[in-house]
Amino acid sequence: MDSKSFTLATETCDLPVTQVGTLLIGSGAAALSCAVHLKKAGYHDLLVVTDNINGGTSRNAGSDKQTYYKLSDSSPVPDSPYEMADSYVRGGSMHGDLALVEAQGSSRAFYQLISLGVNFPFNRYGGYIGYQTDHDSRNRGISLGPYTSRVMVEVLSAEIARLGVDIQDHHDVVRLLVHEDHVVGALILDKRQLDSATYGLEIVLADHVVLATGG
Torsion angle, CA of 24/27/32/35, rounded to 10 degrees? Predict the structure, then answer.
């Protein structure tokens, strides 16, 4: 990580400040996938901040049939990013631009998991044909079973380690820092340094902030 570090004098202490290109908050499957994509795209000035690298829903939750939802490219039913984005926004409470971005990146994210060794089922022709989920007419669902997301996190974690992505574990994000309607970083708390002169507080400034904490 090609970060810059300095201190910010306050009335009570000198806060450490780190400046990075991209600050990524979270360590679930989506966050780790994003980190891998950024690193491979040449964004090496990258910092991942998480409260518990071994916590989160992706790593610790399961169900009878965890479903990975993706753009359908192997089904006899035609699909497209615009069709997928329309499915996202049809229920409301979804920004159209974010829905389209997610749909456009769906295939790339899915096949990255395949390349890392996630063994999603495929047919005799090599197609990853899915199944129909609730309120979906495009057969976009695919699954490894009850622990699909755990497998995803495991392979992504291994790739993160191989790529040397910098991770700050045991850190809580106290507040996002905003300047002129733009998020420019975060005030974070190192829970292992609560008794230090800074009470564990530090600032991370970033050109780009990715909030990947689930929801």
Answer: 20
CB atoms within 10 A of CB 130: 26
**Residue 126 to residues 107, 119, 129, 167, 213, Cα–Cα distance (Å):** 15, 12, 9, 36, 33
Given a contact cutoff of 8 angstroms between Cβ atoms, the answer to whether 49 and 200 are in contact is no
The C-alpha atoms of residue 14 and residue 47 are separated, in whole angstroms, by: 22
Classify strands 46-49 and 166-168 as parallel, antiparallel or unpaired: parallel
Look up residue 108 and give its amino acid: R
Provide the total of helices (H) and of strands (E) in the chain, helices listed first.
6, 9
The predicted-structure confidence for 90-136, as pLDDT tens digits, reads as follows 988 899 999 999 999 999 999 999 999 999 999 999 999 889 888 78
Q: Does the pLDDT of residue 1 top 70, yes or no?
A: no
Cβ-Cβ contacts under 8 Å for 17 (sequence gap 6 or more) = 5, 6, 7, 8, 202, 203, 204, 205
Domains in the chain: ranges and CATH: 1-59+148-215 (3.50.50.60), 63-146 (no CATH)
Q: Residue 88 class from Cβ within 10 Å (0-12 exposed, 13-18 middle, 19+ buried)? A: middle
Question: What are the tens digits of pLDDT across the range 52-81?
Answer: 999 999 999 888 778 999 999 998 889 999
Position 2 pLDDT exceeds 80 = no
E strand or H helix at 158: helix 148-163
pLDDT band for position 215 (cuts 50, 70, 90): low
| Cβ partners under 8 Å of residue 67, min gap 6 | 133, 141, 142, 143, 148
